[in-house]
Amino acid sequence: MKVITREEIEKRHYTDVTEAIKRIPGVTFQNPGYRGGEYGYVAYNNGVLINGDSRVIILVDGRRVDNAASQRISGSSRRGTKSTGVNLDQVTNMENIEKIEVIKGPGASAYGPDATGGVINIITRKGGYSTVGTIDLASGSWNKHNYSFSYSGSLDHDNSLHYFVSMNRTMSGDTEFKDGQTGDVIRLPGSRYREDGANIRIDKDFDKKHSLRLWYNHKSGRDGYPVATPSAKYWNERDWYRILFEIVVGRYDSNHKLTEKGQWWTDQRQPGYHNVYLTRYMYDISNDFNNNDWDLVYTFNKDKGMESFVRAYYQNHIYRGRAAFQFSKFGGGGGNGAGVGYDEYNNTFPTGTTYEQMYAWMKEHLAPFPGGDKKAMDEWVAKTGGVSPVTDWHREENNGIELQYAKSLGKHDVIADFNYDKAKNYTWRNRRAGDYSVTHLSRDTITGYVQDKIHVSDKWDVTPALRYSHYSSFENTNSSDTQQGKGKTSALTYALNTQYMFDDTMSMYFGWTRIFRPLREGDYSTANGEYPNMLEDEEGHVMTIGLQKLLGNKTSIGVNYNWTDMTNAVATLPIWSTRLNDFAATAVNAREKKTAFNITLDHQFNPHVTLSASYDHMYDKWSAKDGMRIDPNWGYVSADDINVQINRLRPANHYALNLSYENRKLYTGLLANWYTGNNTSAFTSRQFLLLDWNINYQVAKDFNVYMVVSNLTNQSYETTYNARNGIGSAAMPGRSFVIGAKYTF
User: Fold this and answer.
1) Of 636, 538, 635, which is closest to residue 594 (Cα–Cα)?
2) What is the full DSSP assignment across 182-248?
3) In 10 A of CB 82, how many CB atoms?
4) Count of C-beta atoms within a 10 Å radius of residue 206
5) Where are the alpha helices (DSSP H) in 435-590?
6) H or E element in which residue 451 lies
7) φ and ψ at 454, to 5 degrees?
8) Using an 8 Å Cβ cutoff, are 93 and 199 in contact?
9) For residue 160, what are the CA distances in angstroms to 33, 150, 205, 426, 507?
10) Bridge partners of 374?
11) Are 333 and 248 in contact (CB under 8 A)?
12) 57 beta partners
């Protein structure tokens, strides 16, 4: 386990969870280049991976916050996704967080049979004995502003009733990024956002073993939705009309004959294709969310640090997507969201037509280049039928109860846990006038877990565990027998974890668990029907082994090796289809073998200077099952699912260095992340070095000032790749800074 403490959060002034954990070895991210994301599309949402695996469970105070009936972050047709369906930065605000625990590998099995990569557990803050209030104000680049307030203390004379209240707002105008192909610094239209949070936690301690906790969490926001960052290389009038022409009409040969009709919605066929998305920012496109969570926990016993409790919880998360518009002749194209529509012009040009004549035709018949005056685009929209908003509403509900009993029996520390969860998902879609649909999904989950931590000796612990999981069939108002992920399913999984201390300076740990991940509605659409008729739940095993060693009083080193063997993983592969007489992208159960290696070094030079360094390497190998014929020319270019080519779609190596200096009133830290081995078919550079720097100074006992600089050298970089949008379409923000002050009273 790696822990981000409240002290570090205060000194580094993290504004979201992603910022806080990006220095942890083995943790990587896949971000679209802007804040927020479209409901239901994994490519347009923030994703977190542990040891290269996106099957990561997100917890708040030990409770899962995902929704078993959710399509929050899923894949489109035939594209599987392993995401847990949670946007990490939309869970709660940083002012509410006491610490963040990151558990890698089988040690996370206590929280679910599907914790393949691991767990991120957010622990909330509890009020103390004395009354404390804080006000934190910051402002910086791109009209970015952060405001936060907290107030906590005790409400009675015997200090048994504690409270903690926090509120915050973070907002920004349109961000900027550095284009990886041209080096230009470009504003990203439509990337502005505003997010708010509020939390209340009340704790009543009846005695040393009995307590009651009530927690309420609110997080809401309105995030811009640019879909993709523009390509400066192709952001000109000539390429704009070239792209629209080949999409709407098609491609012509030298004799002006139509060789291929249009509708090529990929950057591979249309370099710079994703520039057409830029028109969206003109019409107030956004994605909104409003989350409200309640948690009530009664602890009825504590035994050697283990708690016995009963918990009741309720989550209500609402998402509204105004993420696509239909324009007659100009936009939509039946919901493809490309920014251009279909045109009746499918004839060839007369023999002898020059390009200039074709170019003049384009300017007359296609949407004007949006790099000029917005007025021209508005006139075009009005002329071609106006704007028709497309609005999706989604409401996810979770309610459930959890009972945990823990008891120490001699050398045995036993924990038994039971959880019942009822998940619901309501979707309202309004595509255009007269086109309105409502879908209701629900699924019940029952899990039982028992583990026994056996203290074999003072130096050796062994922890075997068993978990039973049952998932009901989906109740779906729009379901059909051919839909995937419908049936009820259950599994018995097991885990074994052990740790041995050789002496006071060295210890070793080992973990092994069986993985079971049930298919989710919306994760995987109907398969081809040939390989296989119905997809099966994911199954496999995960193993980890590690060594920790102290080298003197000031240096420690840790080595971790993680191995995943999924015998029944879901992927989209180019499988031969007898029906189509060709290879076709098909959702199938395949074999997946994944290895990950981490090494970390911590050193204290003197009382003021400390250093943490790490290296990560991950590798995946996918293969088809017997009887499947895969396209021999298959590569990432022809594959639909980024998961099956993750080695090319992420850096091969990740080096991190965290250097900090602290001396009385001054604290400053430099975080370096260096990614190498990038494939230039998916990234604009083979390597990139990111530097983040902060400084915090205590002016007075209760008053601190600080500055945080992100992407210090204004590096151009991306953390993910989308085959449709192309290289560089998810460029991350450039250099930015915030200057702030925090007052404690």
Assistant:
1) 538
2) T--EEE-TT--EEEEEEEEEEEEE-SSS-EEEEEEEEEEEEEE--SS---GGG-SHHHHHHHHHHHH
3) 24
4) 12
5) none
6) strand 435-457
7) -100, 120
8) yes
9) 46, 20, 5, 41, 39
10) none
11) no
12) 119
Tokens of 427: 């979707």
Q: Give yes or no for a contact between 61 and 87, defined as CB atoms under 8 angstroms apart.
A: no
**Rounded-to-integer distance, Cα 101 and Cα 111, Å:** 13
CB 153 within 8 A of CB 127: yes
pLDDT, average across residues 646-656:
79
Q: How far, rounded to the nearest angstrom, does the alpha carbon of residue 493 sit from its chain's CA centroid?
A: 26
Torsion of CA 541, 547, 548, 550, to 10 degrees: 180
d(CA 562, CA 103) in angstroms, rounded, equals: 12
Quick check: helix, strand or coil at residue 724? coil
Q: Which of the 8 DSSP states describes residue 341?
A: -
Look at residues 562, 612, 564, 618 and name the one whose alpha carbon lies nearest to residue 591.
564
User: Is the separation of the CB atoms in 601 and 573 below 8 Å?
Assistant: no
Is residue 711 pLDDT above 60, yes or no? Answer: yes
Contacts of 330 (CB under 8 A, 6+ apart): 339, 340, 341, 367, 380, 381, 384
Tokens 């029996």 correspond to: 409
- Phi, psi (degrees; rounded to nearest 5) at 598: -125, 140
What's the DSSP call for residue 680?
T
Instruction: Give the mean model confidence (pLDDT) for residues 158-173.
Output: 95
Residues 445-492: pLDDT tens digits?
999 999 999 999 999 999 999 999 999 987 765 544 444 455 789 999
The structure tokens 């629209």 sit at: 244
Q: How far is CA 522 from CA 30, 47, 62, 484, 643, in A?
A: 20, 17, 26, 8, 16
pTM summary value: 0.90
Token pair for residue 30?
Answer: 């896949």
